[in-house]
Amino acid sequence: MLGFIIASWFLSPLLSGLVSVAIFLLIRRFILSKEKPGEAGLTALPFFYGFTVFVNVISIVLDGSPGKF
């Protein structure tokens, strides 16, 4: 059990870093490289909001208080 905890100290930052790099590359490719990045950013904003809400709802549903729903 202790080994899993210690492994999580290394895997969690590594995985979050990989996800951050992937998100940055997507933003750079589809928003920042456009001729008008402001408009592209405003167009993409609802998708980012929707994805954020989706992740939070899934987190609450899967790991929330058992028996409360």
Kindly describe this structure.
With 69 residues, the chain is an all-alpha fold. The protein is built from 2 helices and no strands. It has helices spanning 2-32, 37-63. The longest helix has 31 residues, at 2-32. The two termini are 31 Å apart.
Poorly predicted runs are none
Number of strands: 0
Radius of gyration: 17 Å
**Largest sheet: number of strands, sense, barrel closure:** none
Residues in β-strands, percent:
under 5%
Estimated structural class: mainly alpha
Average pLDDT works out at 93
Quaternary structure classification: single chain
N to C succession of SSEs: HH
Helix-strand layout with pairing:
Blueprint (H helix, E strand, L loop, with lengths): L1 H31 L4 H27 L6
Which key features would you list for this structure?
69 residues; flat
Concise description?
With 69 residues, this protein is mainly α.
